[in-house]
Amino acid sequence: MQRFIGSLLIIAATTGAGIAYGTELQRYLEKLLYIRHIVYMLKGEIEYSNAPLGEVFGRVAVRTKDPYRKWLRAMEKQVEYREEDEFSKIWNRSIDRYLKELYLKSVHSIQLKELGTFLGQLDPDTSSRTMQLYLNRLELEIEKVREGMAAKKRISNCLGVMGGIFLVVILI
């Protein structure tokens, strides 16, 4: 009886691990989608209001959730008080500090940092084009994640169950 209960617990635990991995993939996709949403809002504010960048970050921060709100509020304060010489340094440090809890893949983090390299130095038209270029690249990355996600979720679920059965067979 104890072996049976132990076997069920092992299979349940490994199946749960597979399902948790699939859920984490879904959350990562949602993070990328929300970053895309924020960049669209930033782009819209820059294009239509022609406000300074600090004010743009403040306006967008009101409409976002944490940790993005903290990041945008910090960007607003740092841009207005110019604690650093270059905008790109402010952008990169604030991403490292406030968005590290998102655990973005290095590719996505680098792309987001590259956006800041060009954002603070250019006129509104060029900055709009730069943001559009970033959004196009982000769309491609989101599609890659979406395409691989369904297969990875299925595989993780199957591996969870099969791994549990394999462990039970080995232990019994």
Describe this structure in words.
The chain is mainly alpha-helical and 172 residues long. It is 85% helix and 0% strand. The chain has 6 helices and no strands. It has helices spanning 2-49, 53-62, 68-81, 87-98, 106-119, 124-171. The longest helix has 48 residues, at 2-49. The mean pLDDT is 85.
Strand content: under 5%
H/E element sequence: HHHHHH
Spans of at least 5 consecutive residues whose pLDDT stays below 50 are none
Provide the structure class: mainly alpha
Q: Main β-sheet: number of strands, strand sense, barrel status?
A: none
Radius of gyration: 22 Å
Average pLDDT, all residues: 85
The amount of helix comes to: over 70%
SS elements, strand count:
0
Total count of helical runs of at least 4 residues = 6
Q: Specify the overall morphology.
A: elongated
State the end-to-end distance: 12 Å
Summarize it.
The protein has 172 residues and is an all-alpha fold. The chain contains 6 helices and no strands. The chain is elongated and about 70 Å long.
Q: Which tags fit this structure?
A:
172 residues; mainly alpha; 6 helices; 0% strand
